[in-house]
Design goal:
Layout: H1 12-23, H2 27-35, H3 38-51, E1 67-71, H4 77-84, E2 88-93, H5 96-106, E3 121-122, E4 128-132, E5 145-151, H6 160-170, E6 171-182, H7 188-210, H8 214-225, H9 228-238, E7 242-249, E8 254-260
Parallel strand pairs: 1-2, 1-5, 2-4, 5-6
Antiparallel strand pairs: 3-4, 6-8, 7-8
């Protein structure tokens, strides 16, 4: 599957920025349509895993994250959930249009100021700020955050390993990293059906809602090169994360990868 927004070369970041600028206004609606609303449940689960032991779903203990970095924050779903749970959250994204949607949501409809790389823009939640920035070059000191989260973002980075190392750098010892993204089912039959859905239905949605089938043809194009949940676990271990694992949904078509920084 080809998409003019997918470039596995030095133009990768430029094309990804163009893609998300194009779909920003329809992003949340299309996520609801594509997943039948399930993406909201998966994001809630990511926040739950950040506050408990992700390897023990039955663990009743809960420790709210104090300081959270939500990378590739998009329109702010995950960042808002953490902030509503009482965490101090910084949402970072490099696409202005996506951040503008996030800030509009978090300022209760008041027109937000333009996001900048120099100044974190506040929301109506005093514990939540938005910052335009690059996940490969984070403007934060080492060992700052209790949690680094990513929702559907690692797959879009020009250098996934570099992004993982930057996330590890800004995590405090004992901090957790969690990433929700498309997965690859082990079942060959399910994978065939899943890829068929991505190949045929999503470009139709892109044409209907964004006027361009390539906006959502991009998902399959990017997923084909993405290591997905098993490859991500291996890559995270190589980058220094401990206690790595993943939790799958819908037969492995979606997954949350997790790991921690040794204390």
């Amino acid at each position: 599957m080809q998409s003019r927004f997918y470039r596995p070369d030095e133009h990768r970041a430029e094309k990804v920025n163009e893609l998300f600028a194009t779909i920003a206004r329809r992003y949340d609606l299309l996520n609801d349509i594509m997943s039948a609303g399930l993406h909201r449940r998966w994001k809630r689960r990511l926040v739950e895993m950040a506050e408990t032991d992700p390897k023990s779903a039955s663990n009743p203990s809960s420790k709210p994250a104090r300081q959270v970095l939500d990378l590739c924050c998009g329109t702010g779903d995950i960042a808002l959930r953490f902030a509503q749970n009482g965490a101090r959250v910084t949402g970072v994204d490099f696409t202005t249009e996506m951040l503008q949607v996030a800030m509009t949501r978090s300022t209760a409809g008041r027109p937000p100021p333009p996001p900048t790389a120099e100044v974190a823009q506040p929301s109506r939640l005093p514990s939540l700020n938005w910052l335009q920035g690059d996940a490969l070059r984070l403007p934060f000191p080492d060992n700052l955050f209790d949690v680094v989260s990513v929702g559907y973002g690692l797959r879009n980075l020009a250098d996934i390993e570099r992004g993982l190392r930057e996330a590890w750098r800004v995590l405090r010892p004992g901090g957790k990293f969690l990433s929700l993204d498309f997965g690859k089912p082990e079942s060959s039959m399910l994978r065939s059906l899943y890829f068929g859905y991505l190949r045929t239905i999503l470009p139709i949605l892109g044409r209907l809602y964004c006027g361009d089938p390539d906006t959502h043809g991009y998902i399959l194009a990017s997923l084909q090169e993405y290591p997905a949940q098993r490859g991500m676990k291996t890559l995270m271990e190589r980058c220094g994360y401990g206690d790595c694992g993943f939790e799958e949904f819908c037969g492995g078509t979606m997954a949350i990868n997790f790991g921690s920084k040794a204390g």
